[in-house]
Amino acid sequence: LDIHFIHVQPSNTEGRRVLPLLILHGWPGSIAEFHKAIALLTKPRKNHDFVFEVVAPSLPGFGYSEAARRPGLHSAHIALILKNLMVRLGHEKYYVHGGDWGAIISAQMSALRPE
């Protein structure tokens, strides 16, 4: 399944921890909802010792992500697909946030990797 995603790394990380954050949109929705938030999350702030690296995928069947070709793709499958995406990007541990349908997938991902 081909998953479209936006991957934004902070430009200036000097002296800051970089925290990977996977953000998931809801239904109906798209990653366009996160446009302004991504800019804020990846911008270093005074008095913060961290900044986020953001990954925002289009869920299967949304945006430019491929839709399932046969029935049966559910939240646990999508959670595994997105976990594998994060591993491919070099992240074994990361934060995840989702709204609506994205929250269901986030909960499934937390069950896969509770730490």
From TrEMBL:
The keyword Hydrolase applies. Transmembrane segments: none annotated. It comes from Bracon brevicornis. Keywords: Hydrolase. Belongs to the peptidase S33 family. PANTHER family: EPOXIDE HYDROLASE, EPOXIDE HYDROLASE 1-RELATED. Gene3D superfamilies: alpha/beta hydrolase. The keyword Cell membrane does not apply. GO terms for biological process: epoxide metabolic process. It comes from the Eukaryota. Residues 20-115 form the AB hydrolase-1 domain. GO terms for molecular function: epoxide hydrolase activity. This is AB hydrolase-1 domain-containing protein. Pfam families: Abhydrolase_1.
